[in-house]
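Quarterly update from the structural biology core.
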Amino acid sequence: MKINFKILVGIMGKFKEIREFLLSRNYLTCLEISETHIKLAQFEKRKGEKSLVNLFTRNLPSLDEGTVIKTIKAVLREIKKKGTVLSLLPRQQITVRYLKLPSAHPEEIEAMLDFQVSKQIPYPKEEIAYSYIKLGIDTAGYTDILLAIVHQEIAYKQLNLLHSSGLEPERISFDTLASSSWFYYLYPEYRETIFLIDVDTLYTKISVICFPGRLLFSRAIKVGVEDLEKEGDSQSLRNFRDEIKLTFSTFTKEYPQTEIKRIILTGAVSILNKLKDYLKNEFSSEIEIRLPLERIKMGRDALEENWFDQQRVSLNAVLGLGWEQENTEKLDLIPLKEKEKRLAEKNKFQIIFSVLLVSLIVLTLLGFFYKKFHEKTALVRYLNNELKKISAKAQSLEEKKRNLELVREIFSERSISLDILSELHRITPEEINLVSFDFEDGKGITLRGNSTEMAAVFRFVGILDKTPYFSHSQVKFVRKRVGAENLTDFEIFSPLKSK
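Predicted structure, tokenized:
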């Protein structure tokens, strides 16, 4: 039997790539691109625990695309494995909204958000990327939602920079959300509401968080270390104080029942003591300083030599991104089209992996049966020789000898065809009563009717989009009927899928 050596080498090479990919999954690389620095924190997961193995900051002389890519590549040359890559966007580029939705089911929440998101921003829905996390469910069954929205141009710019640097981020979050993860991972003993002030080079990020890491409020102010460290510049300190007071007042108005007893100063280490002395007479709340690395378990060589530069930037967000709890929902601002593209590539990878695995199994079986075949052939040859020796004494065995046959296994490729039945029999739930519909030739269908509950309308939209006929169904209107408390009128437009 002849086996093509080049094919075998190619298959083994693919398995080597897959093996290296699986081994690198133990590493988590978190990257933040600010206006002045590249920040990278890398973690290694061993026996269920994470430890910081690399921490880098690199100054960006400009935000020119070539400069950013060159700087990221220089940092990547310092680490052994990339692993899973996560990235951050700055808070000032993100629109954050807090919503309360009348459902606790993920499908219903997503349908409601799909209907609500266009009302939250001045951009067309096609130009944005959005994601959400659940903050909690109240006693009435309403879900509190943190909705994050970013213009697709910003998200794609981040993706293109990372792709050109040799990185494909699995997720994109934003800095104040990651900072809240940093705080409550390292300081779980704080159970009260915390006013977190995270000072960076050009911006200061302000967050109000409560146990266990719920981000209740956040904003970015354009006052940073470079302003606050200037000698004799008291105006920057006053601006900083006024912005803190404004944020404190705004939050108190939105959450009048929530009391803030503690203010945490963190971020750029070089300025924190100065800010604490300046603010302690301005607020009745207790002010504490928490350093980014004071409780972090790290490897011996995790810190690089430019520690002075690291003291003038905030590392909290890039560290917090690595300390997010594994079992919590993750916010992801990668655009939907990019997610769909990646899903297709992932499926393709799984198919290739399956083909390679089947090929290896087939080669192993071929080798096994080839060996068995030769063993059987040698046995038959031995028996023939023995039969010849005893043929004079046992002529009757000659007939039995003729009945011996060699069995050969034939392997052939089989194609499995999958027939997909897309006949939709009934899609209308019992809670929905369809009154009329209008069909626009080649475009879609408009459904009108009523329902005994509003949430059923949004479930119906999800059912429509799962059929082979419709996609991107939209609720044109949904409202309670006057004089009928249990009836909700609605109108839905469902575009036809292209053939």
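The two ends are 48 Å apart (CA to CA).
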